[in-house]
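Practice record 12: protein with adenosine-5'-diphosphate.
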Amino acid sequence: MPFASLCMAVDRPSAGEAGREYGGSGSLVVKSPWGRNWHDGLGFAKSRKEQLPGGLAVSQLVNAEKGIVELRRQSLRTKILLLACAISLFTSVIMGVAASLRIEGEVSRYAESNVAHETRLIAQQFKGAYDLLENDAFVISRTPPIEGIIRSKRNGGLDPQEESTIDQWRSRLEMIFASIMEERPNYTQIRYIGIADGGRELVRVNRTADGSEPVPVDMLQRKGTEPYFQRASMLKPGEVYLSDVNYNREFGQVEEPQIPTIRVAVPIFSSRGTMYGLIVINADYRALLTSYFNTLSLKREVVITNDAGDHMTRYSDGTLSPFVLHTDTTHALPGGLLDRPEDPGQSEWVSHDEEAMAYSVYLPVSQSVNDSHIVVTARISNEELYAPAKESALQSLALSSVLVVVILCGTAFLATRMTRPLSTMTKSIEMAMHGGTKLSLPTDQNDEVGMLAIAFQNLIDSRNEHDARVQAVIDNVVDAIISIDAYGTVLAYNPASEAIFGYKPEEVVGQNIKLLMPERISVEHDGYLATYRETGQRHIVGITRELQARRKDGSLFPMELSVSQVDLSDGSYMFTGIVRDITERKRMEVMQGEFVSTVNHELRTPLTSIRASLGILQRRIAGKIDPKSEHLVDISLKGCERLGVLVNDILDLEKIAAGKMDFYMAEYQIGPLVEGILERHQSLAEINDTVFELQNEIDGQYCCLDASRFSQALINLLSNAAKFSPPGKPIIIRIAQSAADRITVSVADQGPGIPEAFRSKIFQRFAQADSSATRSKGGSGLGLNITKSIVEAFDGTIDFESVEGEGTTFFMTLPICAAPEEKGAPQCQAA
Ligand code: ADP
C-alpha cells in the first residue's frame, strides 16, 4: 500500500477551498517547517470546523488559542489583583486584630480605672453618711443642755450656772434633737442616756410619721442591758462607738415594723471626769442606703455592704434591691463580688466573670473604737466594658475595608497599565499571525516589556532566517515532500512534487492524497488511515518502501517513499512523506539484470565451449606442431580460463548484490576441511613455484558454513598469496583458536605486501593496487570483495596485516559451533 501511512488529515476539503481561501493562513498557528512559499493546507484544515484527532473542532481550536491568549493576559492582571487583595486583606486583618487587641486592652484598662475611680467616689460619698452621723453625735454632745442637765441634776433640779431647771434644759435638748432630725430624715431616734439608774434615758426624741416627737419622762427606758450601751459605756473621752446594724428594740422587744438600725454613741463626761451619759443617734440604715443610692446618677450596679455583711444593691437601671440584714441567710451577698483578697493591705480589687467586671473598694468608715468598714462594689457588664473597644474595632474594620477597596482600585489601575503593553504586543503578534500585517513590537520601550519585545523580535528574526533556509532546501530539493493530515488531506506540497506528479499545488492541497495513487492502492488507503487513528497500528510510517504512484496524466511510475509522523503542538499530528522518483533507477536495474543474463548465457556458455575445445586441441597437438603455435594455443587457453574466472566472479557479485547467492550451511570440522582444500589446490602453489604449509593448531572444532563457498573464499586468498609470493618462499596456512568461540584461518605470504594507500580500498569491487607487482599478476579486483561477502555470510570477519616488502597475512575468523552429533545442539541455519 503506497502512501498508506502517508496520511492523517482532519477531513476532506476541496482543492478550491484549500488553495483560495485558506492556503498558508494557518502556518504560524501550527508552524509549517517548510516556509513561506510552501503550499500548505494547514490553514484550510483549521478553518473547516473539522475534527482534529483529539475531537476538537479546528475553528474551536483557533478560537481557543485566542481565548487562551486573552485568558493569560487577564490572568496576569487577575493574579496581580489577587495578590494585592491577599496582601491588603492580610495586612488589614493583622493590623486590625493587633489594633483591636491593643484597643481592647487600653479600653478595658481605661474602663477599669474609670470604674475604680467611680467606686472610690461612691465609697467616699457613702462614708460621708457615717461621718455625718458621728459628727452629729459629737456636735450634740457639746451643746449646752448636755452640761446644763448634768449641773441641774446635781444641784437638785436647778442649774445654778444658767439658772435653768432640768426640765428647761431637757426641753431645750429635745428641740435640738428635733431640729437635727428634721435635717436628717434617716435618723429614727436621738437620745441622751444617763449612765446612772441602769442606763436610763434622760432625753429622747423619736421619729414619727409627721416628723419627730419627744418622749415623755415617764416613757423613758432603761437601756443598761443593751449591748450597744454596755460597749459605749466603756468609751473614753473623744471616742465614738458605732454599733452593728440590727433591728431596733423597744422595751426589750424588736420594734415593728422592723427597722435595721445603726447607732452611734459618744460619751458625756462630767467636769469631774466621770462618765455621765451617752449621746446615741439611731439611724435607719436601710433608709441611709436608699437615700444615698437615690442621689447616685451613675448608671452602674453598685453594692454596698459592711463588715457584718448587711448589704443593698442598686442596679444599673436605678432600681434597688431589698435591704438584706446579715442575719438573713436567704439573701447572701452577690457571689464572688465581695471576696476580699488575702492581703490585708489591699483595699481595692477587681474580679471578672462571664458577664461583668466588678471593682471593689474596702474603706474604713468610722473613727469608732470598733473599726467599721464598708465595701463598695461597682459592677460593669462586659458588654458595656468592651463597647468602646467594639466600636473602635468596627471603625477600624470600616477603615480597613475602605483601604482595601482603595488599594484594589489602585492595583487594578496599575495592573491594567502594566499589562496593557503586553496585551498590545500580543494583539500585534496575533494580527501578524492571522492577518498578515507587519509585526510591530514595542522594542523601544525602556523597561522589561521592551526587553521582552527585543528578545521576541530576535526570536522571530532567527526563526524567519531558519525558515528561509528550510524554505530554500524545500524549494530546491529534487524529492517531492508532501504533508497530509490524519484523514489523508494534503496539507503541503513542495515545488519538486509539481515536477514529479505534474499537478500544481492548488490542484492537490486540500485534496485527498489518493489523487496521487493508482486505483488498486487508493481503495485501501482510507482503511489504513482509519486503522492508524483507531489502533495506532502502523503500515508504512518510519520505513522506506518502493511503491507505485500516479501522475496527473494517469501514468504510473515507481517511487521510493519514506513517511514520518510529525506531532504538532496542539496534540494532533500529520504525516510527511518524501517521494523519490526511481524510474531511472529501476530502468538501470532492468538493464543490469539483462546484462547479467547476457553475460551468463551469451558469454559464459560459448566461453566454456571454447575453453573445452582449446583444452582438447592442446592435448591433441602437443608435440605435433611448431612450438610457437603451441604457445599461442596455450595463451588462448589461459586467457579463456581467466575470462571464465572473471565471468564467474561478476555473476557471483551480482548474486550477492541481489541477495540471491545460495548458502548451504552445515557443521564442518575446520581442520580437515582446510586440509582437503589445500590438497586439491596444491597446483596453485606449484604454478608459482611455492608450497602451502599447513599449521593446524586446533583439534576437531566445528564451524557452521557452506563448504563450497568457504573453499571459494580460501582459494581466493591462496591464489592471491601464491601470485604475490616470491618463488621458493612457502605460504603458511595456519588454523588457530583466536578466542573462546572463534577460529581464525590465516594465509601468510612473504610477498611485496599491500601498499599503505591501497589498504582502505582493498575489499572494494574492482580494487587493485596500482603497483607493478599487481599489474604483472593480472586479476579482476573482485576476489577479496566476494571473499568478504562469503565470510560475513558465515557470521565471520576478514582482515589482514601487511608490511610492505615483507609480506601479507589475511585472517578469516569464524564462530565455532557445536558438533553435529551433539544432542540438542543448534543446527546450522541456511544463510
Ligand atoms: P585480484 O587478485 O583478482 O586482482 P583481489 O580482490 O583478490 O583481486 O585482490 C585485489 C588486489 O589486492 C590485488 O590486485 C592486489 O593488488 C591486492 N592483493 C591481494 N592479495 C594480496 C597479497 N597477498 N599480497 C599483495 N597484494 C595483494
